[in-house]
Amino acid sequence: MHSDDQVLAYPLQPAGPLDPPAEWEQLRQTCPVAEVELPTGDRAKLLTRHGDVRDLLADPRFARPTSQDPGAARVAPEGTGGVAAEGGSSMAIAAKGEEHQRWRRTVGKWFTARRMAALRPGMAGIAEDLIADMVAGGAPADLKAALGFPLPVYVICDILGVPAADRDRFAHWSDTFLSVTRFSREEIQRAHAEFTDYMAAHVADKRADPGDDLLGALILDGGPEHGGLSDEEIRATGMSLLVAGHETTANMIGKMVSLLLADRDRWQRLVADPSLVRTAVEEALRFDANLGFGLRRYLSEDVQLGDDVLPGGSTVICSMPAANRDGEVFAGAEEMDLGRSPNPHLTFGAGPHSCLGQALARTELQVALEVLLRELPSLELAVPSAELERVEGLLVGGLREVPVRW
């Protein structure tokens, strides 16, 4: 355990835009429960070993901190840029306990592998159109802006039954919520009010004519009296899906392609053998060192973790990307193995709070990669990978842009 004079400033700084912080390996070996200080001045415990991170994330007793919890809770919730908590879009969804599990069961029925397979041709069509537009605009281009950012928004619009004509409004709202610095508080609040009004009206329209989409399915399940969701919960679900599902996947598309293009042999191997796409996506998810802040858990009671006792009342940061480099679990952990299987990475979390949309994210990443390999086999980075720039900001793990040519 680090003593008080060895408290680390968190987040840790990486060696390069695609590289992990040097401290991860040392912490896993010598200090798996480290004391860190957050930018707010709060203290927290940092976990870096795969087993510790998996066990804590899978523990149903603990969820992410809320504003009601003491301790180091003054960092905005994961994946929201802080807006959902401020504006209340997620407040209709319980954060933990039986209510949260009821919501997960109800919504999770829709996010099956079978349902995602049915969405796949539509996703591929969207990706093909976006890539064709990028090519028409000429090289170099920003792959993140051309494909990474719009693809998940357009897919989410399809899932929510939102008309294609409204896609760009959704993209603007999501952009506003997820930017830490570009928009004023007033602009963010206005976007949130517009989005809330839009989704409330959209749910009302769906109630009249449900259709074959997620919101329609939730309405057809019946309300709370039948074990289903209220209109407010359905609205909040639609809003949360945009915010949580867009940011992470948009960033991951750019990071995945950058990792594969940083070493040209990786890309050429996939061009030669596209059957590796599924395992390559999983390995990019494991190998990504730029996942943002990590998942936080507030401990409502003492927890024994190996030789350490984590005291109740503390906040713990679970570093999934550090755990994903644990050599005790992954042979050749510092190498990107495109055929790695099995690959028990923790990028989507674990247990009762694991990412509900992981089947969707995986499908989007696979489709984006498949279409790029087919349409642009000559794709390459337009700058050296060391010159890529990370997005600065606690919660967002991503690159500012991904300049490419072909």
From TrEMBL:
Keyword check for Metal-binding: yes
GO molecular function: heme binding; iron ion binding; monooxygenase activity; oxidoreductase activity, acting on paired donors, with incorporation or reduction of molecular oxygen
Lineage per the UniProt record: Bacteria, Bacillati, Actinomycetota, Actinomycetes, Pseudonocardiales
Principal location class: cytoplasm
CDD domains cross-referenced by the UniProt entry: Cyp158A-like
Keywords carried by this UniProt record: Cytoplasm, Heme, Iron, Metal-binding, Monooxygenase, Oxidoreductase
Annotated spans, Disordered: 1-22, 60-86
Source organism of the structure: Saccharopolyspora montiporae
Localization annotation: Cytoplasm
Protein name: Cytochrome P450
Alphabetical list of Gene3D superfamilies matching this protein: Cytochrome P450
Cofactors, names only: heme
Family: Belongs to the cytochrome P450 family.
GO cellular component, one term: cytoplasm
Any Pfam family matching the protein: p450
Alphabetical list of InterPro entries matching this protein: Cyt_P450, Cyt_P450_B, Cyt_P450_CS, Cyt_P450_sf
PROSITE patterns: CYTOCHROME_P450 (PS00086)
